[in-house]
Amino acid sequence: MVRRTGPTNNTVQELLVELRGKTHESRFWKRIVHDLNKPTRQRRTVNIYKIDKFARDGETIIVPGKVLSVGMLSKKVDVAAMNFSDEARSKIVQAKGKVLSIKELLVQNPEGKNVRILG
Predict the structure, then answer these.
(1) Rg from Cα positions in the chain
(2) For the whole prediction, is pTM greater than 0.85?
């Protein structure tokens, strides 16, 4: 049986260390840490059309994985994720939304209030 080591990407490891401090205060961040601790092949990928389908105008969305560019975005939505494809990033900005990293969202919203997890 192979022993599990967790993510080997240094940026993900640093983010997890920072987020683990918030898990005692917020169940929201505890869930994000749980999802980011998964192997890369099990991480979530979300297309733009799903964000458009499930998000409300002006809402903040977090994707503990990668945002891909299939579909169109018609709502002004702030999206935080680990990675974005270049086209997805441009579609979010074109819809007057914000592209955030998870670390930036942690600074803006330390409690995780009014943020929806997609994926």
Answers:
(1) 14
(2) yes
